[in-house]
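SAMPLE LOG
Freezer: B-3
Tube label: C17
Construct: single chain, 310 aa
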Amino acid sequence: MDYLGSLKRNFLIACQLDVQALKPGNVSFNSSGYGMTGQDFITSSEVCAPLMVQPGLKLGEKIYLATKESIKAVGCNTNLGIILLCAPVLHVMQKLADEELRRLVDPLDFLQAELMKTIYKIDLDQSKLIYDAIVHANPGGLGEDREMDVRFTNVKIIDAMRQAKDKDFIAKQYFSGFFEILKQPVLEENFRRQWINKEKPINPCGRQSLASLIYFYWLTNNRDSHIQRKFGLRVAEFVKKKAIKVFQDQINFENVLNKVNNGKMVLPNRSRIRQFDEFLKVRGLNPGTSADITVCSLLIFGLLEPDYSA
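STRUCTURE (predicted):
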């Protein structure tokens, strides 16, 4: 498989794991919701993946075209956040050869520096394409905060994200070069290697468990931006605290590694997860940003550890 094909495949695997994993409050094969199914997300990823790595396209063009084709395919916004987070990562990786990444002493620091340079270089024309993608997708909460309303923005994307970074996690990543995502415990080399060594031979259940753990981590460590945009800070904080009670054993990744090494790693029982899933969905509380971060995290994990997505 050629390098671009490998990048595309890693993206598709991350999107597939997203809907295979147990993710309470969010859409998956295990639990539809908000008028969407897991298959909608698979269809969206399949139509936008080629555009995310298409040679000759600038980053803003990739984001706009991928968003437009995704909505055209399924009739609703399933993956704007995924595209906004994954497109810059793939765009940066497209400039490298596979061997170059493996030779880097610190690939995470390299990625952060390159992402920051790439995002800072997005000009006004490309920025407007990204705003058009956001408006076209019409995400939940759009327009409720005038300062963050891209329909009235006429500045470069880095300036818009600087203004929104304290209220929106994806904006914060654009401004910081994906600092929080790249510094999460699951992407640290020690965790990656220990997890993979324990999971050999690598199997689908292990990958799905990893996806769930990443989702639990973000659900319990950050107020979800999607919930905060739609329902406000108090509700977002309430969901975070509720998640901490449900997933308290999965928050500390050192404990997770100890459990993996001792062969005792288990997720909360399905009944407990299903109850929390129903609790969130009956109230319309979709931790969509936590799911978007999960996909981006899985993409980076797979790029750093090619054997894991082989």
